[in-house]
Amino acid sequence: MTINGQPLIHLENISKIFYTDDIETHALSRITLDIKPGEYVSIAGPSGCGKSTLLSILGLLDTPTEGTYLLNGRAVDSLK
Q1: Spatial separation of the C-alpha atoms in residues 32 and 14, rounded to whole Å
Q2: Whole-prediction pTM value?
Q3: What domains can you pick out in the chain, each with its CATH number?
């Protein structure tokens, strides 16, 4: 845990929906995850399950459709 007792990365109910014409593609649905400092995490799964989408959100390359993403206790929205 960080000094203030929070995980380094905190995701709560993260969802990502891609919209194309009349089609909704649900890439992530209600992902909740805490990562502590120094912790190693693997993201594994079959093709098309949302691994790259999750990593794009974690790396601030994309934004979730809904949910909360805190980095060191701060909302990532305030970092942009």
Answers
A1: 7
A2: 0.88
A3: 9-74 (3.40.50.300)
